[in-house]
C-alpha cells in the first residue's frame, strides 16, 4: 500500500507541475509578472526531499502503517480534495510559482473564501499526516519545521507581490 500511495502522490505532483507550466504560459500572455524566483528552487527541492526522506525513513527504519490509519487516511483524502478545490477555484491562475497579473482581482471563491493560502495549509497538513500514516516521525517533524520556514518566506513574498499590484 505504501508504494501505491507514493506512486499516486508523485504522479499527482508531476501532473501539477505540467499544469503549472501550462498556466504559466497562459498568465504570461495576460501580462503576469513573476515574483519569488530566488526561493522557488528551494521550495521545489524541499518537496522532492520530503518524498525522498519519507521513503527512506519508512524503508530503512522499517516503519509500518500506523494503528491510527483509519483516522489518518480519511483526513489525507480530505486534504487532497481541498488541494483540488483550491486548484480548480483558481483555474488557469493556479501555479506553483508566484505570478501576479496587473489589476486582477483576488480570488474569493472556493476555499479562498476562508483562507488566502489554502494550498499552503494543505501542504502543511500533508507534511504531517502522510508521515504519521507510517509512523515516520522524523520526516513529519523535520519537514513541518522546514515548511514553516519556507512558508514564512513564501507568504511574505506573495503578499509583497500582491501589495505592489494594488499600488
UniProtKB/TrEMBL annotation:
RNA-binding listed as a keyword: no
Keywords: Membrane, Transmembrane, Transmembrane helix
Keyword rRNA-binding attributed: no
Family matches, as Pfam families: ICMT
Annotated membrane topology: Multi-pass membrane protein
Compartments (UniProt record): Membrane
One GO cellular component term noted in the UniProt record for this chain: membrane
TM regions (residue ranges): 40-61, 68-87, 120-146
Single GO molecular function: protein C-terminal S-isoprenylcysteine carboxyl O-methyltransferase activity
Name this polypeptide is given: Isoprenylcysteine carboxyl methyltransferase
Organism of origin: Bacillus gobiensis
